[in-house]
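Hello,

Our lab assistant flagged a job as stuck in the queue for most of the afternoon. It eventually completed. Since we weren't sure the result was trustworthy after the delay, we are filing this so someone can double-check. Below is the sequence as submitted and the structure that was eventually returned. Let us know if re-running is recommended.
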Amino acid sequence: MADPVVHFEIAGPDAARLADFHGKLFGWSISPGLFPGYQSIGPIGAGGLRGGIRQETFTERVFYVKVPDLQAALDRAVELGGRVLVPPKLVPGVVHFAMFEDPAGNRTGLVQ
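-- returned structure --
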């Protein structure tokens, strides 16, 4: 895989309940995230992908793909029929990310 999936997020109106559900179902660890209403979640021990649970009024699941150039990836997504949702944005000390929607409405995050 040229550009790997490196993170996932699950969102909904009751983030604490979602984190509890997924933690108990899969044996994942749950810890406070970097932002209010956000919890880090993922497998205990080596292997597997860590993610986050975020508080939103809507439900969604998003996976994040690591790319070498956020804007180039967004431009290519648009060329292929996608739509930019979040242009490149820097969260200082945390991540440089963007988000797009594919032709079917699925959201995908990008990180650099």
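-- support follow-up --
The delay was a queue issue, not a problem with the job. The result is valid. The CA atoms of residues 30 and 41 lie 5 Å apart. The mean pLDDT is 91.
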